[in-house]
Amino acid sequence: MAEKDTIEELIEQLRQLKDPRVAGRTDHNLLDILVLALCAVMSGAQGWDDIEDWGRAREGWLRRYLKLRNGIPGHDTIRRVSLRWPVSTPAA
What is this structure's pTM? Predict the structure, then answer.
């Protein structure tokens, strides 16, 4: 059995997260937004516009792994979803 790509392992882990948004009122899958944002930031993106630009430049590659049912989400969508996500800090 072949080893999974690192991206496939990331997707497998993120797929387990529950989407807190209202069902049926979203244009982009939560998984798509999270994978896009994480990959872009790990590649050097430093802001919402950078994440969107990174995604547009690599849309073909991302489509190998993600549905992207409405294409690459815009920077405002990426920001809104990211800011809504609960942040926790590790216990000391």
Answer: 0.86
